[in-house]
Write a structure and sequence with these properties.
Elements lengths: L21 H12 L12 H14 L10 H18 L7 H10 L6 E5 L2 E4 L4 E4 L5 H8 L1 H16 L1
Antiparallel strand pairs: 1-2, 2-3
Helix pairs in contact: 1-3, 3-6
């Protein structure tokens, strides 16, 4: 399956086996960034299920059910924030986490269709113009590491 040509219309609160699309792509990118060998194809199959369980097992406070619910997604966002912050140590602590919480509620697959000329996508709500939508832009917006890194660079560019 290839990824859809359009962002999702709803914000899934939990991602589970059988789901597909951009929110699953975002989850897979996040897991891969954190060292879980997860192919980012947008399909929540057995491999993604096992990686979610492995992540949940490592965190220890999460239920090991293979479902990427709000708590699992929040932990992924926090760890990616720490990774991005490590590359940009001059970034004020908590800026990206606060942005992810206020913009998307830490939902990796968040989408806001209530913007003119396009849609805001992903954990930090990167604007994707359209329709038609450019897949490359959506890949950037929904990949939490790339999106958070872009926000970090933009923030630092405006404050220095």
């Amino acid at each position: 399956m290839s990824l859809p040509i359009s962002p999702n219309r709803t914000i899934p609160t939990s991602l589970r086996i059988g789901d597909n699309g951009w929110p699953v792509f975002a989850l897979q990118c996040g897991l891969d960034e954190l060292g879980y060998d997860c192919e980012a194809d947008g399909i929540f199959g057995p491999g993604t299920y096992r990686m979610v369980q492995a992540f949940q097992r490592k965190i220890q406070t999460l239920t090991i059910d293979g479902i990427a619910g709000p708590s699992t997604q929040t932990h992924i966002v926090r760890l990616i924030d720490a990774s991005v912050h490590g590359r940009h140590p001059q970034l004020p602590s908590g800026v990206l986490r606060g942005f992810a919480l206020s913009e998307s509620g830490n939902s990796l697959g968040a989408t806001n269709w209530n913007v003119p000329g396009g849609v805001d996508c992903g954990v930090v709500q990167i604007r994707c113009a359209g329709p038609p939508f450019f897949e490359g832009t959506m890949r950037i917006a929904y990949d939490p590491t790339i999106a958070m890194d872009q926000v970090a660079v933009a923030f630092l560019g405006r404050t220095h």
